[in-house]
Amino acid sequence: MYTLNHFIWLAVCALVIAISIILLRKYKPSLKTVLTVACVVSVISEIIKTFSLMQLVPSTDGTRFYPYIELENVPFHLCSIQIVLIFMTRFMKESNVRTTILAFMYPTTIVGAFMAIMIPTVFNTNVPVQNAFTNIMAYQYFLYHVMLIVLGVYILMSKEVKIEKKHFVSSFIMLFVFSFISLYLNSIFADATYVDGSVKYVDYVANFFFTYESPINIYFTEIWHWYLYYVILFCVATLFLFLFFLPFFRKNKNLENFKK
Predict the structure, then answer these.
(1) Is residue 51 packed enough to be buried (19+ CB in 10 Å), middle (13-18) or exposed (0-12)?
(2) Which residue of 46, 62, 68, 233 has the smallest Cβ count within 10 Å?
(3) What is the CA radius of gyration of the chain?
């Protein structure tokens, strides 16, 4: 992270985002068209990731081998969940539910993907940083998150989605529900050791939504450390949500003043 190769990738991502937004502003495709492209990119990205990370792992006795994907790569992170939301909004009819989902995607795709690009966990897990331009997983990781940022920006640029201040509340609730569910998923996928029916050791957690571990190697030694981390994490996420929806609070307030 923050090596020369990372900075080069940051520059590439910024260039691709800028060119994409300029082209979208010029040609003004429908949001449905952009969602269609996002569906295609998402499928290609997930296929590349799945087959690139598939391993053949032996059984304990060494008599059999099984294909296996490490749990951290299961698509339950916020940016991976966006794939489901992209397909939902692409094929749903116009409705309040669709608008609510798109309003949620608007800030979470931008912020989530931006943070992923700034703190590329792919260099800590699947790609040695020295192979940043020779490993296909690096291209999959950065370009997929670039697509999410462009999509989030275009949800607003298209002016097809009537985002209102009430969507701050719905987005807050959705984010809390997803993060709360991640607590269960992280425990389900953890490698825990039980002795006499009680858990004694945990050697691995999938860390979906980063609710179990910090992505910047902050370690917990007391349970209150984790409680504090979770509260701070959610407060920061809420602050980002508020900042993204702030223009709509002010817009609605100005409209109300105009009507008076």
Answers:
(1) exposed
(2) 62
(3) 20
What are the C-alpha distances in Å from 218 to residues 97, 212, 215, 229, 231? 38, 11, 8, 9, 15
Overall average pLDDT of the 146-167 stretch: 96
pLDDT at 152: 97
DSSP state of 93: P
d(CA 30, CA 160): 8
How distant is the alpha carbon of residue 134 from its chain centre?
A: 24
126 pLDDT higher than 60: yes
Q: Which helix (H) or strand (E) holds 203?
A: strand 198-204
pLDDT for residue 255: 43
CB 81 within 8 A of CB 105: no
CA distance linking residue 155 with residue 148, whole number of Å: 11
Q: What's the pTM value of the predicted model, to 2 decimals? A: 0.91
Q: What is the mean pLDDT of residues 116-129?
A: 85
Spatial separation of the C-alpha atoms in residues 119 and 129, rounded to whole Å:
12
Q: What is the helix (H) or strand (E) element at residue 15, kind and residue range?
A: helix 4-27
Please state the length of the chain. Answer: 260
Query: 162: alpha, beta or left, given left = phi > 0 and alpha = psi -120 to 50?
Result: beta
- Bridge-partner residues for 66, per DSSP? 57
**Minimal CA–CA distance to 182: which of 223, 211, 215?**
211
Residues 130-148 pLDDT 10s: 888 999 999 999 999 999 9
pLDDT of 260 strictly over 50: no
| 200 touches 213 (CB < 8 A) | no
Which residue bears the tokens 């790569």?
73
Q: What b-and-e string marks burial along 20-35, b requiring 16 or more CB atoms within 10 Å of the CB?
A: beeebeeeeeebeebb
